[in-house]
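Re-run with default settings, no changes from the original entry. Doing this only to confirm the output is reproducible before filing.
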Amino acid sequence: MRVTAKQKTERLRSVALRGSEPSAAGAGAEWYRAIFDTAAVGIVVADRDRRIHEVNPRVCELLGYSAQELCGMTGEQITHEEDRAASRVGTAALVSGEVERFTLEKRYVRKDGGIIWCRATASALRDPDGQVRQIIGVIEEVGARKLSEEVRNRLAAVVESSDDAIISKTLEGVITSWNRGAERLFGYTASEVLGKPVTILIPPDHLDEEPAILERLKRGERIDHYETVRMRKDGTLLEVALTVSPIRDGEGKLVGASKISRDISLQKRIEKEAVEHARVLELLNAAASSIASQLDLRSLVQTVTDAATSLCGARYGAFFYNITGPAGEGYQLFALSGASVEDFAQFGVPRNTPVFAPTFLGQGALRSDDITADPRYGLLEPHRGMPAGHLPVRSYLAVPVVSRSGSVLGGLFLGHASPGVFTEMSERLVTGIANHAAVAIDNAQLYEAAQREIATRERAEAALRENDRRKDEFLAVLAHELRNPLAPIRQAAMISKAPGASDAQKRWSHDVISRQVQHMSLLLDDLLDVSRITRGSLELRTEITELAAVVDAAVETARPIIDAKGHELTVALPAETRRFVADPLRLAQVLSNLLTNAAKYTDPHGRIRLSAVYTAEHLTLRVTDNGIGIPAEALDEVFTMFSQVKTSQDRSDGGLGIGLALAKGLVELHGGTLGAQSAGAGRGSEFTVRLPLRAHSPRRPTSGDSAAIGPGTGKRVLIADDNRDAAASLAICLEIDGHEVQVVHEGETALAAFGAQRPDAVLLDIGMPGLDGYEVARRMRAESGAAPLTLIAITGWGQQSHKAAALRAGFDHHFTKPVDPAQISALLRASPSAAEAHAPR
């Protein structure tokens, strides 16, 4: 029969009581003493005041004191202070007779200060009258058991307070324990699951996992961090990590399993998001690299649209963006992804409707799980929502593309036919794409602007080079055209002075000189006219004009070259006579230039035709020929200044190549147009003048452009010019006309002569050495005071600014060299002399 530890303790206590009795003697006493000394438990004999009289060796072993040290000590001295009160209460009850014995688990304090847990049982030895004579205590160490209990209690507390689900089950899979963590995780209480199969936690599609786990447990295997899916009471699924360990009894027999289930849903979600984030970053970086590497705007926006559509899983994507043309005009263009241009062609570009406005105004991203449910949707006529035939859109995401300067470049618009497609991540992705796109579009536009600027600069430089080339050729032709008349002039002058020259030869020489000088004057007049037209300073002298008179003047001017080449000229004018407002001289100049041009570029004995037609509002004049024609590529150049200089040196007829440019400018001053047509090389050409038949306000000529001619007497005239031949020849002409003329060649000399002679008129060259003509005029005007004085500027500078400077200096008239002596003489005759100004009337 097996004896328990408690039974052993009771027997030893009885032995201790009997061994302590005074009557115990002889062999029996020795036997009890032997047991007392060799007992496995501690035995203490104390008086009713708990003062120790005797201890056995086990007590000394437990407490670390010798028997001599313990005898005389009280129980309280070796008891832990926190257990003394309970010990006193038990002893008092024993002494009073309330109990025969009491048992207390308490802590003793060893000699070395250590603590030892013991189970102390105290009994009283009484006199015949019932008084306590001694107290016998039996001490049994229970530290190992207490430690085991503490460990178990601590483990139980850990299990109960764990956030993980800790479950035990049998080898058949029946749940035998269920902590609070399991209740929180799976939603079942312990009463709902204890005794039930663990398969209530397993989704149907994972039921095959449990038999495999049990088989491994039966083999004694431990399963660590097995990731799977389990099901809560409400049917929702959880991602969990399982650790399953086999449970054995004291004899090592496998009796069940302990399972720890940890919720890893958040961890898995974070891992998935991290993987997705890494994937998105990779795609975003790839897209950003692709976007940043492009400088062509159209290719760039297509890449942006494709990348945004792909990254967020959209069915359709569109990028509407604004560009500015070279002239500052604005356009809105678009790129599409997932759809064709035809799908959007009938709907046009979006406008600032309530749905689109936040994007086009740069107010931030707009994301909707169902745009058709948005309160801003469907407010405007005529569609009241999605237009008929539009691609189906429920999920909607729009992000503005804003430049570094803050201006809205455009917007990314993404759609899907299903609701709820776009997430916060989608929005962040497209926003990132939009930010990259904004920088790239800024760069692309800067690049395009730089390219346009480079192209403009290159065109300007090419134009300058071409202009310089044309100017160089023009100057060469001008020199040629000016030198040509010099030879006959020089030869005619020699003939006129030759002693043997006849009167007829002298008259011929005079005619040659006059003709060549007139030719040179016309060349210079053409140059000055072109310059005035370019600056906008040439003014028309309009008057009531008859077409026949204008045509006659033009034909007369062009007749010499037409007749010289044997051309046939036909003039066809309307039978009706209509008068209109125009500058007849300038209009005749236009027609003569066109006729001369036709004569030059038509082979000898060609045909030239001048015709005119009236309409209600216009007069149309045409000059046609059957000459060499104009190549198609040269039609736009024929009216350009110097455009014909390149071939002019090859033409025996000469000319500066500015006649057509001058004619076009004069026609445009009349409010008309001049155009050219040709069927090609060798097929002739046609020039068409179209003039409006409306009144033009006459413009007054500026001072010096003309002078009225009237009767008068000869005047005293002072000529100051450092060109001695020009001054002398002009003086002779004026003297022949009856004027008294004095000539000087410097500014100081002119002032001296003016003071001595007091002339009626002074002709001053502006560019004299020393004092220039402006300063001389100012001084003469100041010296003359109120006396009549006509000051005439004679200069080679004919720009409007030079005329204005002359008037400011005190000149009355301004003439550009070469000067016509007859025009000067007429002006002098019309001016009053000093004597006439003071004559009585």
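Confidence is low (pLDDT under 50) at residues 645-652, 695-712, 837-841. The longest helix spans residues 424-497.
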